[in-house]
Design brief:
Layout lengths: L2 H26 L4 H23 L7 H4 L8 E5 L4 H10 L5 E5 L4 H9 L9 E4 L2 E4 L3 H9 L3
Parallel strand pairs: 1-2
Antiparallel strand pairs: 1-3, 3-4
């Protein structure tokens, strides 16, 4: 996702969240002002966390450096913030030195690569190991591939 596209996503997410909070608070009505303020406060906190989650940067190696590391026994993972599947993979393999992480929202060249391997779609995680490309592999699949004899 390019800079402007990423900004549009964050703005639309924020506006949608704020509107949902306002509607929820309005539905409570004036019968219970304390409950309405609790809904507003909780909803605003939720929107802030959600937007923060999508705006975070996380691990990133520029694609120009990362692509040189693609080899049997080493994975390069193209990921993006807010992607649940990416987060699961990151949690499982975060300390594995055989994995390099590339944020496709921070690197336009990596974004082009991920789209080229997924019919023009920004599907993440997309993983390169040697001459293999995997879309949304499980941590177990990736570990097995990394552990496979070369």
């Amino acid at each position: 996702m390019s800079g402007p596209e990423r900004t549009r996503t964050l703005v639309s997410l924020t506006i949608t969240g704020l509107l949902a909070v306002a509607v929820a608070a309005a539905l409570v009505g004036t019968a219970n002002p304390g409950q309405r303020w609790a809904i507003l406060a909780g909803g605003l906190l939720f929107v802030a966390v959600l937007v923060g989650w999508h705006a975070r940067r996380g691990r990133h190696t520029p694609w120009a450096q990362a692509q040189q590391r693609i080899a049997p026994g080493h994975a390069v993972v193209l990921w993006k913030p807010g992607c649940t599947f990416c987060e699961v993979l990151l949690q499982a393999l975060r300390r594995d030195p055989r994995v390099t992480w590339v944020n496709v929202w921070a690197d336009p060249e990596a974004n082009t690569v991920v789209r080229a391997h997924n019919d023009g779609n920004e599907v993440t995680p997309t993983v390169f190991v040697g001459d293999q490309v995997l879309t949304n592999p499980s941590a177990a699949q990736l570990r097995d591939l990394l552990d496979a004899p070369r």
